[in-house]
Design goal:
The protein has 577 residues and is α+β, with helices and mostly antiparallel strands. The protein has 13 helices and 15 strands. It has a 6-stranded antiparallel β-sheet. A 6-stranded antiparallel β-barrel has the order 7-8-11-12-14-15. Helix 1 packs antiparallel against helix 2, helix 5 packs antiparallel against helix 11 and helix 8 packs across helix 10. The two termini are 44 Å apart. About 3% of the residues have low confidence.
């Protein structure tokens, strides 16, 4: 009968050391991450963006993202304490006497380091981005709640270039048929629009204000379903209706009363503007679909409507020069028929060149407005020698669009449907909201960012490129480069943090064996300060990548490499003695 096989001493030592390491890593991580998570709640709580009822939930959510920074230090601290005990209890001496090498003695720390690095990499790539989204949603995404909070405190809120104040604000459940996701009722409110210098331009007062929040798709159109691929709409549209409003502009002494006055604006989703909220696979997909980021999508739409305006004006110019009528239409079913000899730049507008002079009179620009009327179509002829086309691209970047406005000065009109007697001359006539048919923007809106840049290349290569197309293309190209660097920076940061966690465990173990005669906390300082320097270089390298890609990557990984070299030198010194 054979005697029972004895477990090898190194395996026994490994099992005991790994068990001690696991317990201390868990304990130190829980303590450290709880302290850091509590500290993370202080600022949003003091700023009022975090309600007391959400405090515990926010703190629990914050614990997971804080693991990226707490786990390396906690693991290094645990390794220092465990291996310091191994050294002071003479377990290391006994192991050496029994023929166990230093490499084998540090083996449990290497195994724990590898498992922690893999686990932290998984957290960084897949779990932490989702928890960051939930944290951000609690303190910023609930727009209606934030507006209500600020107004209840008596503060004015800036929305869409206007300062809004109200005596009270109350949230309510929106009508399901409206498609709104949130609804806010404001009482006795005022809104002031200011210019770039801060001077008031428009003042609006109202007894009641109503605010609705709608989900918006990437093309700026309201959508029925509030969910996107990341679980939330890429943008939100806010509609504010002021009832029984009085509007005063500039130096007008008396305001104009209206039954209601509406303001709407687009609010980008914060999750679609920062790569830190994206998982590894979502970051990889940004290479082919960068417009998933709002700051890219807004610039893409800038280029879409700049190209649409350029193509529309070229088409109008070609049509008028060939002697054909140019037909435009709007969303209300109206049609605008232009007759002239072409168009030419005139500052921010385009002057319509009049038709050639005839024996009956001088050359004129003719514009025929056709609209729906009872029993048929109403037709009005407008004639002027000074007519201009103005491209209207929307009030701001988030509300970008493309429409043409016709402005005619010293114009005469004639109703072609009945009495054809010309009316008295008018100082100015303006009709707006017209587009060529088919709308040139429709095809451009389907194109991704890089394809749009290819479409813009011939325009940019011309001798006198359109300034709107040129500026929009340059800005989109610059933003695409910024996004590529941001994605690469985030990918390297996550990998560097995971790798630094493994190195810190080894550093703690080797340092504790090296300085076994010193106190544990003194020994940990030999690990702590190099670890801090490593995280500083990772963070500094990420910021430096925005200016210099190569220098940023070198700086980011230099801290990890330096810590690894420091640990290797410590181990070599330990092995020699």
């Amino acid at each position: 009968m054979h005697p029972p096989m004895r477990r090898r001493p190194s395996i026994t030592l490994w099992r005991a050391t790994i068990a001690d390491l696991a317990k201390l890593v868990v304990m130190s991580t829980v303590v450290l991450v709880s302290v850091i998570a509590f500290a993370a709640t202080v600022k949003p709580l003091s700023d009022g963006t975090l309600q007391a009822g959400d405090l515990l939930r926010f703190m629990l959510l914050a614990m997971v993202p804080m693991l990226a920074y707490a786990l390396p230090f906690a693991a290094g601290f645990a390794a220092t304490l465990v291996y310091h005990r191994v050294a002071t209890d003479n377990e290391a001496t006994a192991a050496h006497a029994s023929g166990i090498s230093h490499r084998s003695l540090v083996g449990p720390a290497a195994a724990v380091a590898l498992s922690l690095a893999v686990g932290l990499a998984g957290l960084n790539e897949f779990v932490i981005p989702r928890f960051l989204q939930e944290m951000q949603r609690i303190i910023t995404v609930d727009l209606a709640r934030l507006l209500a909070q600020e107004i209840q405190r008596g503060k004015a809120v800036r929305v869409s270039g206007m300062m809004v104040y109200a005596d009270s604000a109350r949230r309510a459940v929106p009508d399901p048929s409206s498609g709104a996701t949130d609804y806010l009722l404001l009482a006795k409110m005022a809104a002031v629009e200011t210019d770039a210098a801060g001077a008031p331009v428009t003042e609006v007062t109202a007894n009641i204000g109503r605010l609705w929040l709608f989900p918006v798709a990437g093309d700026g159109q309201t959508v029925a379903a509030p969910e996107s691929e990341a679980g939330r709409p890429p943008m939100s549209r806010v509609l504010m209706r002021l009832e029984n409003a009085v509007i005063a502009r500039g130096d007008e002494a008396l305001g104009v009363a209206r039954d209601y006055f509406e303001i709407d604006w687009i609010v980008p989703n914060a999750f679609r503007d920062n790569p830190k909220y994206l998982t590894m696979f979502e970051l990889a997909r940004l290479k082919d679909h960068p417009e998933r980021m709002n700051f890219i999508e807004l610039r893409r739409r800038d280029l879409v409507y700049a190209l649409a305006g350029y193509e529309a004006l070229r088409s109008i110019d070609r049509g008028l020069k060939s002697g054909r009528e140019v037909r435009l239409a709007d969303d209300r079913g109206r049609e605008l028929i232009l007759r002239g000899s072409g168009i030419e730049p005139a500052g921010a507008a385009w002057r319509i060149i009049p038709l050639p002079a005839t024996p009956e009179g001088p050359g004129q620009v003719q514009a025929e407005l056709v609209r729906a009327a009872e029993g048929g179509r109403g037709r009005t002829l407008m004639i002027s020698r000074d007519a201009r086309l103005v491209v209207d691209r929307g009030p701001d970047q988030a509300n970008r669009t493309f429409e043409l406005r016709l402005e005619m000065k010293r114009a005469r009109t004639r109703d072609l449907g009945g009495d054809q007697q010309a009316a008295a001359e008018r100082a100015e006539i303006a009709v707006t909201g017209f587009k060529p048919q088919p709308d040139p923007a429709a095809e451009y809106l389907k194109m991704p960012s890089r394809q749009l840049l290819k479409e813009a290349s011939p325009v940019l290569a011309s001798e006198s490129p359109d300034p709107l197309v040129r500026d929009a293309a340059r800005e989109l190209d610059r933003r695409l480069g910024t996004l590529s660097i941001a994605v690469l920076s985030k990918q390297n940061e996550r990998m560097a943090l995971a790798f630094s966690c493994a190195v810190m465990v080894l550093t703690g173990a080797v340092t504790a064996l090296k300085f076994s005669k010193k106190l544990p906390l003194t020994v940990y300082l030999w690990t702590f300060f190099p670890a801090v320097a490593t995280l500083v270089t990772i963070s500094g390298g990420q910021q430096l990548m925005e200016k210099s890609l190569v220098a940023g990557i070198v700086m980011m990984w230099s801290g990890v490499a330096g810590l690894l070299l420091y640990t290797w030198l410590m181990f070599r010194s330990l092995a020699r003695h």
